[in-house]
Specification:
Elements: H1 2-21, H2 40-47, H3 49-52, H4 67-72, H5 75-84, H6 104-118, H7 140-150, H8 152-155, H9 171-175, H10 179-188, H11 209-221
Length: 241
C-alpha cells in the first residue's frame, strides 16, 4: 500500500511539472469560409491592395484612398467597377455573379469601408468638380491643342515622354486603360507619382469639362487598332515564327 501511494504521488508530481513545462495546446477557433469574411481590412488586403496599394495609397493602379477620386466617383460607381470589373483592362470582376470570388455583402463592406475611411467630402465644398462620365463629348482636334497646353510640359510634345513623366501615348499603355480610366486620371491625377489633378496642370488655369473630354478623345485616337502586335504579321523571307 505504501508503495502504491508513493507511485500515485510521483505521477501527480510529474503531471504538474508537465503542465508547467509543456505548452498547452490552444483551442482552435473554426475557420471562416472565404465567403463569410466581412472584415474590411482582410478583404481589402486580399483583393485590392496588390494593385491599389496598402491603405489605398496607390500602386500599379490609382489610389482608392484619394479624396479627390472619392469625391468624383459615388458608391454606385465604385460598386459597379468592383462587381463587373473593366473589360479590356487589368481590373477584373470580383463579384460571384460575374465570375469572381466576392459576395454582394463583401463588396458592400469594401465600398462602405473605402468611403468611411478615406473620403473627405468637406474638402470639396464650393469646388466645381468635373463629372465622372464624359460630358461633353470630346473632339480630337481640340484635344491636341488642350494636350499641348496642359500636358505636354510633362509628357512631351507628342505624348511620347518628357523630362517629368513617361509616355502617355504609348500603345501598350493605351491598350490597358479605358477612356474612363484616362478621364479619371486627368481629373484626379496621381499625387503619389507627382501627377497633378485637373486644377494644377497649369497654375491658375484649371481644365474645363470640355478640355478634359477633348484630351481623352485625343489620347484614345492614339490607341492601336490591334494592341500587342508591334511586328509585321507576315514573316520576312528566311524568317520563321
Amino acid at each position: 500500500m505504501r508503495t502504491l501511494v508513493i507511485a500515485v504521488l510521483v505521477l501527480l508530481l510529474l503531471g504538474g511539472i508537465a503542465r508547467k513545462v509543456l505548452p498547452v495546446r490552444p483551442t482552435m477557433e473554426p475557420a471562416l469560409a472565404p465567403d463569410q469574411m466581412v472584415d474590411f481590412d482582410v478583404l481589402y488586403r486580399q483583393d485590392c491592395s496588390g494593385c491599389h496599394g496598402a491603405n489605398g495609397t496607390g500602386g500599379p493602379a490609382p489610389a482608392l484612398g484619394d479624396p479627390t477620386y472619392l469625391a468624383l466617383a459615388n458608391d454606385a460607381t465604385i460598386r459597379r467597377v468592383v462587381t463587373n470589373g473593366v473589360p479590356g483592362t487589368p481590373m477584373s470582376a470580383f463579384a460571384q455573379s460575374a465570375g469572381g470570388m466576392l459576395t454582394d455583402k463583401q463588396i458592400d463592406v469594401l465600398v462602405s469601408g473605402i468611403r468611411s475611411r478615406w473620403a473627405k467630402p468637406n474638402a470639396f465644398q464650393g469646388i466645381n468638380l468635373p463629372s465622372y462620365s464624359a460630358q461633353p463629348i470630346g473632339d480630337v482636334s481640340r484635344g491636341a491643342n488642350a494636350y499641348a497646353l496642359y500636358c505636354s510640359s510633362c509628357h512631351g510634345a507628342n505624348g511620347t515622354g518628357g523630362p517629368k513623366a513617361s509616355s502617355i501615348a504609348n500603345g501598350s499603355f493605351l491598350a490597358l486603360v479605358s477612356d474612363q480610366g484616362l478621364r479619371t486620371s486627368i481629373i484626379v491625377g496621381r499625387p503619389e507619382l507627382g501627377f497633378p489633378d485637373w486644377r494644377n496642370d497649369v497654375p491658375g488655369k484649371a481644365m474645363s469639362a470640355q478640355d478634359i473630354s477633348d484630351v481623352v478623345a485625343w489620347l484614345a485616337a492614339q490607341r492601336p487598332k490591334f494592341p500587342g502586335q508591334p511586328y509585321s504579321l507576315s514573316p520576312k523571307a528566311g524568317e520563321s515564327r
